Model the fold of this input.
Amino acid sequence: MITGPRLPHNWISTNAPAGGVALRDHCIVFDRGPLDRASESISELKDVLPLLDRSARGIEFFDMSALAGDYFGRIRASQGISRFSVFLEFLCVLGEWKDYRLLSNPWTDAAEDASSMAQIDAIIGFMNDRYAEDLSMPRVARHFGMSKSHFSRLFHRRTGNTFTDFLIQLRVSRACQLLAHARDPIAAICQDVGFNNVANFNRRFLAVKGMTPSAFRKAFADPR
Done:
């Protein structure tokens, strides 16, 4: 995944084990400004600029976890010009990768972007804290002093999801953690993560994860 400037960085990892993950993710932080300036003298660098333009909307890449992991390992293991060379090679691979999706709509006014980014960060933080409650879009909109229509447009523009879809994914992610690492009955977990009945929970879980909660537990539960 690549996220450009002024995008909210709200990683939801509620399906992590209680003790955490030894290596949760890899991250390279860089400023595109030097690449833009260098491309004026080194024409080959212009090959990566379209990728960086797209990254302003956020890019999720598919079916390249192993390849990306290899590049991160090579970058970490190298130094100096060799590290920069591997980094550029990685950017070129990402720029040519065909299986991806953009995560948001194009940005408009920079000042408005900064303000709405802060708003969406606060909203997602609120949802992370209260996902098990009877949350609704009108309730959250009121909490943040927004009209329903403005809230709906802002949320979809900044997250790429409707409020309802995002909340379902958040609840299912939390349910995955409980299914894998707790012995509570599925009916109890359903209530714990905010679903109102088991049938609805099963249907939503299947739509998000491609399997039922019971199948997920069999596949991923910690051995006891």
Q: What stands out?
A: The chain has two domains: 1-107, 108-224.
